[in-house]
Amino acid sequence: MTEYERSRTMPALPEHVFDQAGNVDQMDQWLPGGLHVHAEESPAVTVHEDGAADDKNAVLRARKDQMRLEWGTREGGGYTGWLQVAGLDSGPTEVTAHLSFFAEENDPGEQAVNEALDRSLDRLEQQVRLRVDGAAG
């Protein structure tokens, strides 16, 4: 098993970050480009990757009381992941994204995964800023 983790500090309340991250209808705005999540009967989701022949059956659980999202493939156990949102002493929010790949053939490699995680956290921060700035204006 190979695991990857990246963190980012965001200038917003943890609740705002978690609500934005956990909005299934808007996840493709912060997930890696070309990845789309479609809600089914909770916790089931379907994940479509642009250019892939088949959609993947997955699960997505939002644990609001823990400010945590958890996900993974339903069949074949290819990968799992989580996103944890934590407030830092009434200041900014720390967001940590973690991915675990159970088989080497499912792991795109350290550089590709770290770049995708960094881009996703950048995009999530942009979405949170738009939401917070829009609500303030």
Protein architecture, described:
This protein is of the alpha+beta class. The protein is 26% helix and 38% strand. It has helices at 14-21, 110-136, and strands at residues 2-10, 35-39, 44-49, 56-63, 68-73, 79-87, 93-101. It has a 7-stranded antiparallel beta sheet with strand order 1-7-6-5-4-3-2, with helices on one face. A hairpin with a 4-residue loop joins strand 2 (35-39) and strand 3. Helix 1 (14-21) crosses helix 2. The longest helix is centred in the last third of the chain and has 27 residues, at 110-136. The protein starts with a strand and ends with a helix.
Secondary structure blueprint with pairings:
Layout: E1 2-10, H1 14-21, E2 35-39, E3 44-49, E4 56-63, E5 68-73, E6 79-87, E7 93-101, H2 110-136
Antiparallel strand pairs: 1-7, 2-3, 3-4, 4-5, 5-6, 6-7
Helix pairs in contact: 1-2
Number of helical segments with 4 or more residues: 2
Taking all Cα atoms into account, the compactness measure Rg is: 15 Å
Beta-strand content bin:
35-45%
Structural class: alpha+beta
Described by strand count, sense and barrel closure, the largest sheet is: 7 strands, antiparallel
Q: Averaged pLDDT, please?
A: 89
Strand order of the largest sheet: 1-7-6-5-4-3-2
Gap from first CA to last CA: 46 Å
Pick out the low-confidence regions: none
- Helix and strand run: EHEEEEEEH
Coarse morphology:
globular
Number of strands: 7
| Helicity, as a percent range | 25-40%
Structure in a nutshell:
The protein is of the alpha+beta class.
Search tags:
single chain; 137 residues; alpha+beta; seven-stranded antiparallel sheet; 7 strands; 38% strand
